[in-house]
Each structure stands twice: as structure tokens, then as C-alpha cells.
Amino acid sequence: xxxxxxxxxxxxxxxxxxxxxxxxxxxxxxxxxxxxxxxxxxxxxxxxxxxxxxxxxxxxxxxxxxxxxxxxxxxxxxxxxxxxxxxxxxxxxxxxxxxxxxxxxxxxxxxxxxxxxxxxxxxxxxxxxxxxxxxxxxxxxxxxxxxxxxxxxxxxxxxxxxxxxxxxxxxxxxxxxxxxxxxxxxxxxxxxxxxxxxxxxxxxxxxxxxxxxxxxxxxxxxxxxxxxxxxxxxxxxxxxxxxxxxxxxxxxxxxxxxxxxxxxxxxxxxxxxxxxxxxxxxxxxxxxxxxxxxxxxxxxxxxxxxxxxxxxxxxxxxxxxxxxxxxxxxxxxxxxxxxxxxxxxxxxxxxxxxxxxxxxxxxxxxxxxxxxxxxxxxxxxxxxxxxxxxxxxxxxxxxxxxxxxxxxxxxxxxxxxxxxxxxxxxxxxxxxxxxxxxxxxxxxxxxxxxxxxxxxxxxxxxxxxxxxxxxxxxxxxxxxxxxxxxxxxxxxxxxxxxxxxxxxxxxxxxxxxxxxxxxxxxxxxxxxxxxxxxxxxxxxxxxxxxxxxxxxxxxxxxxxxxxxxxxxxxxxxxxxxxxxxxxxxxxxxxxxxxxxxxxxxxxxxxxxxxxxxxxxxxxxxxxxxxxxxxxxxxxxxxxxxxxxxxxxxxxxxxxxxxxxxxxxxxxxxxxxxxxxxxxxxxxxxxxx
Length: 688
Description:
Blueprint: H1 15-20, H2 32-37, H3 56-79, H4 82-109, E1 116-120, E2 132-135, E3 147-157, H5 175-179, H6 185-198, H7 219-233, H8 242-249, H9 259-274, H10 283-300, E4 308-309, H11 310-326, H12 329-346, E5 369-370, H13 381-406, H14 433-438, H15 447-452, H16 465-487, H17 511-530, H18 540-560, H19 579-603, H20 606-609, H21 619-633, H22 647-668, H23 673-687
Parallel strand pairs: 1-3, 4-5
Antiparallel strand pairs: 2-3
Helix pairs in contact: 7-9, 9-10, 9-11, 10-11, 11-12, 11-13, 12-13, 13-16, 16-17, 16-18, 17-18, 18-19, 18-21, 19-21, 19-22, 21-22, 21-23, 22-23
Region (Disordered): 76-104, 131-164
Subcellular location: Nucleus
GO molecular function: DNA binding; DNA-binding transcription factor activity, RNA polymerase II-specific; zinc ion binding
């Protein structure tokens, strides 16, 4: 045993022996193998390290995380904000709980990625035990971000060694770094530092510009999302003043936005990502971040009932729209309920209590609603008031559109915006977009005035497409009340249908009179939309308003053909109709047929407009037209279109129209869950 030599001689093997994987005798200047073969013997005494030693990366991460924590503590101490510290601690606790749950899920999936306990030992400073989180790049799925926890404790670790629960240091490095075997120490340090720098926003909550909780959004990505919002979302949800948003979002007014504005900014970017294909992978993370921010800050402000930031209401509304696109209408309905309650608590339905509110815009602010303004925004009183109006009307429209298909009870009723003397609640319709963005005051009528006194050719309409959608949403709400009354065989008085013509006040308002009044009001809105002749292929809100008006005509026609649910009134049976009523019903059927084909014509403008800019509720009027044409084309003879020998035309044209609208639904379903649901249901009916 003592006479046996060492297993491996000291020194380095030559390159030729290494290449051939032969045993080198380490002879100098030439080894024995190279001497026998006559090859050049090359010996490299100094070799580059192939990777960091065990524990070096974890120690460096711990140092960076500790420095980040110290910086946060330093800035918090300077600001003297104990409330922010409590929020950070609460958020860190929530993150820690989510990380524990994620770790358990990872262990079930077989990934050995979990909490790692380290102690940072430096020669210059001593750090206190603190729990810091950092984002790792362990093997993940596309929709899951794995996280680990670094806790400096009594267990020691230094740059030369240390234990870890991680499988290997390659698991925490990008794929292209793990494949490289010839990185120098300096290159590896620079690469790792760059990698950790890109992960720095996920270590703690960013109160400045909405970097997110654990999201790796670069400045370019955030700018792209902001631009996407105003290009695609704002035309259909016009509630944010563009210039004022970029004033505080860019950090020109304040170093960091307020918590309410941070919530709004996150919701805006969530909605922008939901209407984009190349950003849709961020929707789930952005949605979770927005909901967490809203839950945290709304709970903090729950004790103050006199001040409700407008940004909270706007954020909940945008989040509901994003969930409508991403998840479905049921989840959107639950989220929208939070926004509706804030609208009621903030009393946004009585912004214009004063008749001269537009002459004195500074007095039209609701005392229960506040927004954060700067010294550059003091002259933006009209824009500030208009932003509140638009927030209310967006909530009003969202409530009506969500409840329309399933005929759910409304939360924001029309009488909330009524200038009735018995109810001090009133809010004017939204102003045109140019007046809103340029802070140019204009007097817009109330909703009942716009419905009862529509503009004529001598006095053209000043209503914007957004205001027209609000009017049509209100008319749709009346149509739902009318249909529900007919389905239940009721004869409500005028109070059930507010603001009727004076000649009908105080008398019974039977079915056919309600039907004629609603049909006349909707026909006036159709004529008003046709008169300006605006480019529907470039304005998604105007296109949706046109489709909504024609869809209301179809809705009224379907009300006439609604099966009877009650037998208490025998004179309501189909066979008991008078000849005059049958002719009127046939006339409604023909109007609905024309309206359905008009929706087909308007649907051809969706591809030129881009399906990514379409209104989130655009699938509803398309589906209504598809169902109407499909049911009528299946009816043979003149009775298919309600009489008059038009059944053949309906049968010939309806098939092509149905295919065109199904094609639009197929395109829109890429980003719209409502379109996906309608498309699958229609496909099941046709081929099932």
C-alpha cells in the first residue's frame, strides 16, 4: 500500500491527451504519449473557471436583496411614512403565503425549488435577519412564476461554499448561460448582475410607477401598454384624461403616483394587455396585481366614508372589462359590483345637482368624491368634472350590457340620473371627446331630456357616440322592463316606465302602447345616428352604437313573439289577436329583418376597424342578428318574415349574413371570451 503511487500525478494533462481522453504522464517538456506519436505537446497551466463555486450565486443574491431592503428602509425612514411600512409588511406577508403555497405545488409537480436559508457574511457590515423575496428562473410553465425566499439566519454561508436546497446553480440561470462552458469570472459576474438587475423590481413593491408585484415590466413594455390603452381601450372606455394621465404617470408632477392612481394605472395596463395578442400573456399576472392593489388600498380607505378616490372606481370598472374579455361575464359581474357600490357611495349620479353647473364648473364636484390634483391641474375643472360623469356613465352602461342577455335586475337604475324634483339626483350625459380632452366646457342635456326631446334637422345633435350608447343602453333597460311585464302578463302603470309622454300620464299603459313608444324612440336614435354619417369603420364606439340601435329593434320584435308564460289573460293568446294587431306584429317583423341585415352590413366594417379595437360587448348585437336570421330563414313561405311575401328574400340573404357575422365572431374571439362563448353556442346549435 505504501509503495503504490498516487492515483493522479500533479499538474495538468496536455491538450492532446485530453482530446483523446488518454492518461497523460505529465512529462515535461513533452509527455510520453506525445513523444511516441510525434505530436506537439501543448500544456495549459491556467484554465478559466466553468462556473461559480457552490454557494457563490446564492450569496450574491442575498447581498443584493439585503442591499435592496436596506435602501427601502432608508427611503421609508426619510419619508416618515409608517403607513407605507405597514402596507409593505402586509404585502410581504401575503407574498410569503403565496410562495409557500406555490412551493407546495412545486413539490407536488416534482420541482425541487423551495425556500433557501442563507446568512450573508461580509467584512464591512452586519445585517439583521430579514425575509426577502426574489424571483428565480427555475423551470416553469408559461403562466407560472416561481419564487424563492432568502432569510439571513444563523446558518452560515460564504462565497466559497455553503449548502442550498436548490438542485443546482444552473437551474437559476438562463438557458443560454448554462450552455456556455467557457465564461470567464468577469463575464459571469456581469451576466449575473445584469440578470439580477432585471429582477430587482420584484424584490419589493414599487410605489413609483406600477412596476408590479413580481412582474418584469421594462420601461418600454410599460410605455407600450400605456400607448395600447389609449389606442384600443380608450375609444370604448373613455374615462381617463390623456394629458393628465401622462402628467402624473411620467413622474413630472410627483415623484410617485398616489396609491389610488397606482391602482388605476395597473388596471389600465391590464385592460390594454387584454386587448393585445403579444401582451396577452401578462393579463393574468396584471389582473392579480391590480386586484391585490385594490383590495389592499380599498380596505385601508374603508374607514373614511367621506372621501372615495375616483381612481378606485375607474380601476374596478376597467378590471371588470378586462375580466369580461379574459374570463367571462359572470366574473365580470362580480367585479363590476364593487364599482357600482363605489359609484353609489361617491354619489356620482348627482354630479350636476345645480342647473347652472356648466356655467360654474367648480361647484359641480360631489362632496363624497375626491381626486388628487396638482398645481398644473387647477385649471382642469371641467375635465375633472367630465371625468366623473364619464365614470358614472361607463358604470351605467356596463350594468345594462351585463344584465341584458340574461335579463338580470339592474343595479344602477335610470331614475338615478333623472332630474326629478322629488329626487335631488342628476348627472348630465358625457360631453364630446374633443371637449373633454381640450377642457372646453359644453352644456349636454340630461338623459331623460335626450330621450324625450331628440334633436331634429334644424337642431342637430351634440351627443357623442359614447352618449348615444348611454341613451341606447337606457332604452334597452326600458325594453327589458317592457318584456318582463309582458312575460308576466302585467299591466304596469306609467311609473314602471318613467318619463312617458304627458298625454299618457295617469292612465294604464298597455302592451301595444309601450311597444309603439319604445319603437318610436329607438327609430329616432337610428335616424340621429344616420344623419351625421360618421365613419363607423374608424370609430369603434360609433360602430357599436349603430349595431346597438338596430339590435334594439330586433329585441322589440322578439318581445312580440315571446311565448306567453301566463294564462290569466285569454285575450293575449296568439289566436285571439285582432287583425290590426297581427298587421302591426308583421310590421315589427319586417323592421327587425331590415335591422338584422343592417347589422350584417355594419359587421363588414369590423375587419377594417381591427377586431382588437372592437367594443367588448360587440358580440351581443351580432349574436342577436344571427339568432334572428337563423330562426326566420328556417320558416318556409311568407310567414317566415312576418308576411308580405318577403320570406324568399330572407331565406336567400340570411345564410350569407349569418356566415359573415360568424366570421366576425371567430376573429373577435381571440381576445374576447364573450365572443368565444357566443361562437361556440351558435356552432353547437348549427352542427349539434
